[in-house]
User: What shape does this take?
Amino acid sequence: MSTPPQYSTLLSTLYDEQAPIGELGRGTHYSILRSTTSYADNLEPSAKINVHDFALIWDEDHDTRVIDAIEMMYVRNLLSPVLFLGERKGGLTTLVDPLLYNDQEKQHTYMSEMAEICGSLPDSWSSTVNFFDPSMPMCTEEPRMLINSGADKIDVYLKNINNLWNLGIKKYKPSIACV
Assistant: This one.
C-alpha cells in the first residue's frame, strides 16, 4: 500500500483517491484529512486537544487550490465543525455539524468568515455552508454544489463515507504509551 500524498503541513492525509472510482457526478472522488483541534464542533473552546477527521470531495480536476482555503480555515479555528468540504465550479461547499448550523448567530458568523476566506483566495470563490446530519435526508441544493448528481445518490455517497470514517471530532489516542 502506498503512502497517501500530504497536501499540507497542517493536515494529515488518512485516505486519498487520485481519480474517480465508479460513476458519480463529474469525476467525484474523495480524501480523508485529519487535523488537530482545541475547539468543539460548535466552535466552543475545548480543554483538550482532539483529532478531527473530515472528507474532502474532489471533482474531475482534483484542484489542490482548495488546500489554501482549508489551511486558512484551520488557522482561524473554523475547521472543527466541518464534516465535508469540496470545490466545484468556482465555489467552496462546506457541510458542517448540525450543532453549529442550528445556532443562528454562530451560523451567520461562520458563513461570513467563510465568504471572507473564499473572497481572499487568488481566484475568488463563492462560499456555501450547510449541515450534514446522517439521520436526515440531504437537502437538494447545497450538496449539488458539492457533487453534480441527484440528491439520492449524493445522500448515499456522503453517508457511506461518514459510515466508513466516522467523520468529526474524536478523542486523541496516543499511539505509544505516555510516560
Notes: The longest helix spans residues 104-120. Residues 12-171 form one domain. DSSP finds five helices and seven strands in the chain. The helical segments are 66-75, 98-101, 104-120, 141-146, 151-165.
